[in-house]
Amino acid sequence: MATLDFSPIADTTRRAEIVALLRRAILTGQLEPGQKLNELRISEQMRVSRAPLREAMRELVQEGILTSIPYAGTFVIDVTAKDIDDAYSLNKVIDEFAIARTWPLRDQRFFDELDRRHAAVKQATRELDTTRQIETALQLHGLIHEWADNSVLLETWQRLTSRLQMYFALHQRARNEPVPAEDAHETYVRLLKGSDMRAAQRHAKEHIDFDFEALLAYARGLEQRGSKGAGANRAGPPEGG
Amino acid sequence: MATLDFSPIADTTRRAEIVALLRRAILTGQLEPGQKLNELRISEQMRVSRAPLREAMRELVQEGILTSIPYAGTFVIDVTAKDIDDAYSLNKVIDEFAIARTWPLRDQRFFDELDRRHAAVKQATRELDTTRQIETALQLHGLIHEWADNSVLLETWQRLTSRLQMYFALHQRARNEPVPAEDAHETYVRLLKGSDMRAAQRHAKEHIDFDFEALLAYARGLEQRGSKGAGANRAGPPEGG
DNA sequence: GAAAAACAGATTGTCGACAATCTTACAAGA
DNA sequence: TCTTGTAAGATTGTCGACAATCTGTTTTTC
């Protein structure tokens, strides 16, 4: 018998669908940072009860894109320049790790998948679909994390990605311009196919920094204007054990 | 007016208490890997309804120590040698990062806190309280992540920690021996106080590896025996976008 | 008139019951 | 004997209603 690979059956719970809907709304910026999620209103709009909606919200709180205050409400996380900086600096570290781990596992299937995702980015770029462009670019970057064969790394990257995607979307929405039309990933893909691992790692860092500068500048601008609920969270001794 | 630092008020929802209870039960090994959590039974034992219990479980699923299959149940995650390997290898990377970030931020309060946590480990070691020893040792290691002033890093480390603590507890339970009585953290603390950052980073790696070897060997042994629900999750091209 | 107390409205947290789904056991048919 | 269909029981998913809490306003008191 031929061993056909079936993909997992789709999640059939309302909860899962709600999670997907909410996540998309948040990551595309339809739900803005700081915005409160009214349970009754949303549950009525989605035609579900509050139970699965609340469970979905708990998941997204743990996922790090919502925050919850008991008896006060659940809110889309606020985006500060520091958050972006934190996410990016950690991302650089695990990118380097992911490349190192993926490197010896590269095979034809890897290269094919790399090309496929690269093509998807170029496609979205041609179509001037900014949301899709962000998605596909992050998926291209995600390949090294998926291929590294480290489930914990993959989870970590996915958590980071959620935030990055949110930040990017926010950025794009605010600037409302059709995105750099150039192919910014040509070198990245070429190096991943090559034989110089250190060069690939180095480029990953620099390439990310490139996108990053504009984003950080934008975020700093945001904080100048709307300084609602700021608060410098300086690290300090946490509650003692 | 003197600026007194008040600690946050305790969460007063049942959900939060349930999360704490369940997490502790899992991390100490009272709930064993693979075990199914019966909602009705647990809710009756805790004298709460299923609603807050289910919300708590969703949080722990996202936290990575429970896994959920729709209409089948929620289970404590299975511990494989590969999981441990994954967690540790990533931990080494972010440890290095955390030390680098913490380094310029070290001050007297840092050193005091370092000593405090170190003392807690030694205390637990003297009292032969293995569970507490694991907790305190991880808290000692956690200081560099808390002090690094990077919220995303801290979250990531806390997720990793949950698993490591679970693995350690399992290990200790199985071996049932009173733990290495020596002070394994003397050098670590000394180097963190010193002036050679690279040396501290290097030691963190090696030190962790030291604890790790026994744990990994044990986990491999586990897999030899109970090979229930194995399955080699080789990385492959995920579902296309 | 200002501070404190009491009230009203809205929202979140929790509960008990019902619906949908899965598992198991058992019977029917090839 | 093996497969397929069916029914019973148990468990998870979802719903609507009630309780607890917060916020803002009004009333009372000095």
Task: Describe the structure in your own words.
The structure is a homodimer of 241-residue chains. Chain A is built from nine helices and three strands. Chain A is mainly alpha-helical. In chain A, helix 5 packs antiparallel against helix 6 (130-147) and helix 6 (130-147) packs antiparallel against helix 7. Chain A is 65% helix and 4% strand. Chain A has helices at 14-27, 39-46, 50-63, 81-102, 108-126, 130-147, 151-175, 186-193, 197-225; strands spanning 36-37, 66-69, 73-76. Chain A has a three-stranded antiparallel beta sheet with strand order 1-3-2. The model of chain A is unreliable at 226-241 (pLDDT under 50). In chain A, strand 2 (66-69) and strand 3 form a beta hairpin. The first copy, chain A, has two domains: 14-76, Winged helix-like DNA-binding domain superfamily/Winged helix DNA-binding domain (Arc Repressor Mutant, subunit A, Orthogonal Bundle), CATH 1.10.10; 81-224, GntR ligand-binding domain-like (Four Helix Bundle (Hemerythrin (Met), subunit A), Up-down Bundle). Chains A and B meet through helix 3, helix 4, helix 5, helix 6 and helix 7 of A and helix 3, helix 4, helix 5, helix 6 and helix 7 of B. Chain A binds a DNA duplex (30 and 30 nucleotides) through residues 12-15, 38-40, 48-52, 54-55, 70-74.
Order of helix and strand elements from N to C terminus of chain A = HEHHEEHHHHHH
Give the low-pLDDT segments of chain A: 226-241
For this structure, the quaternary state is homodimer
Q: Compute the gyration radius of chain A: what is it?
A: 20 Å
**Mean model confidence by pLDDT of chain A:** 84
Here the CATH topology of the largest domain in chain A equals Four Helix Bundle (Hemerythrin (Met), subunit A)
Secondary structure class of chain A reads: mainly alpha
Share of residues in strands of chain A: under 5%
Principal-axis shape of chain A:
globular
The CATH class assignment of the largest domain in chain A is: Mainly Alpha
Query: What is the strand tally of chain A?
Result: 3
What is the CATH architecture term of the largest domain in chain A? Up-down Bundle
- Main β-sheet, spatial strand arrangement of chain A: 1-3-2
Query: Count the helices of chain A. How many?
Result: 9
Largest interface: A-B, 60 and 59 residues
- Tell me the helix content of chain A: 55-70%
Largest sheet of chain A: 3 strands, antiparallel
User: First CA to last CA of chain A: what distance?
Assistant: 58 Å
**Please, what is the CATH homologous superfamily of the largest domain in chain A?**
GntR ligand-binding domain-like
Total domain units of chain A? 2
